[in-house]
Every structure is written in C-alpha cells, then in structure tokens.
Specification:
alpha/beta; 218 residues
C-alpha cells in the first residue's frame, strides 16, 4: 500500500484498491490553471497529478529528464505522462480525478505568492515537497492524515509507527507517528523536527535502518 500525492491518495498497487482518496473538483483545477496561465511565466513548470497520469501543458524540463532516465525501462514502469496544451480539457475528456498540482520553480517567493493568491479564492493546502517543488492539495491532505488512515487500515497503533522523511511536506507525518527519522543530508530545520537522524539517504541509509530493525525483532 502506497501513500502518494502528499497524502491525498492511498492505493494498494497490487490489487488496485483505493484505500483513501481526496480530489479537487474539476472547477478547482480549472481555476488554479487559469490563474497560472495569467502569470505568463514560462520558467515555472506546472503539473497535475491524477490516478493515471501526470498532466503537463508541455514537455517540461523535469519530465524530459525523467524520460531520459526511464528510456530503457519497460513501458509499464515508466512515469505515465500526458502532454497536451489543453490540460483541463483533456482531464475532463478522460474523466480523471486530480489529487495534486505541482509547480517547479527556482524562485520560491514567486510560487509562494501564487499559492497565497490561490488560497484567497479556494480552500486548499500547499507545501514544499523538495527544494524547488511546491505542491497544492485539496484541503486537509497531508502525510500525517494519510499515515493515520493507513494505521487504521492495518489496525495498527499510530504511536508504534516509524516514519522517514526529508522535507517540509513530512512535518505532519513526523508529528503524528510514534517515531520519526530523517537522513543527515536533510536541512537542519527538518533534522530538528525528528526523533532520530541517520546516514545520507543516497547511501541507502533507510534500507539499512529497516533491515537492522527487522534483525532485532526476528
């Protein structure tokens, strides 16, 4: 079972079962996209996440990079992209539910100001999920809520759950779980939120942590 889209979607990838889903209305997606178009800023990348695709109005830098990285992978493992200059029209045609909108920009102030304008007309949540990635989700969606729902799904106490994270979109998850862990290449602000700091995530520190923990409880 995988939590995705910053907590707005929980899905069993083996069976296809939707454990939890909270989506924007298509009117909300259209409002946000129209506001984005008014920015007339070709530098900011705009993506809409649904159950089946990542929608883009053009082949963005990040999507082009993903295509190169996945070039030799089997088609079923490649990131499902849907590139069209009429994002909203295609989402309507495909009758898709949208769980997240992501904007990528070096200028953090610009996307934060955009998000502030969106909140003046819509009741949504937003956060940085990586250095230059800003996510907008339906109100009430975050990884903390998702972890709580996943614990309920497995009938497991939330205070016995261990979570791993490295950015600000993980804060709510750190707050609700019994134990929170982050890699040492996370920012100082993130490290201060966690119960434990481990090695660099590029050195497979999370996998090692889980394997060592499993050995202890065998």
């Amino acid at each position: 079972v995988v939590i995705s889209n910053n907590g707005s979607l929980i899905r069993n990838l083996k069976t296809g079962e939707i454990v939890y889903q909270k989506s924007f209305t298509i009117d909300e997606v259209e409002t946000i996209y129209n506001m984005f178009k008014e920015l007339n800023d070709d530098v900011i990348e705009f993506h809409v996440y649904t159950l089946n695709y990542i929608y883009c109005n053009k082949l963005s830098f990040s999507m082009a990079r993903m295509k190169r990285l996945e070039e030799n992978m089997p088609d079923e493992l490649k990131t499902p992209m849907y590139i069209h200059d009429d994002i909203v029209g295609e989402i309507k045609k495909n009758k898709e539910d949208c769980q997240k909108i992501m904007m990528i920009a070096k200028d953090h102030e610009k996307v934060e100001n955009f998000y502030k304008k969106v909140t003046e007309v819509l009741d949504v949540d937003g956060t940085f999920s990586a250095t230059d990635f800003f996510d907008i989700m339906p109100k009430g969606c975050n990884k903390g809520t998702a972890i709580e729902k996943l614990a309920q799904y497995y009938n497991y106490p939330i205070d016995k759950c261990v979570v791993f994270g490295d950015n600000f979109n993980d804060k709510e998850m750190f707050d609700v779980a019994g134990w929170s862990v982050c890699p040492d290449n996370a920012s100082t602000a993130i490290q201060n939120m966690c119960d434990e700091v481990i090695g660099n995530n590029n050195d497979f520190s999370v996998i090692k942590y889980v394997e060592d923990y499993y050995k202890k409880i065998k």
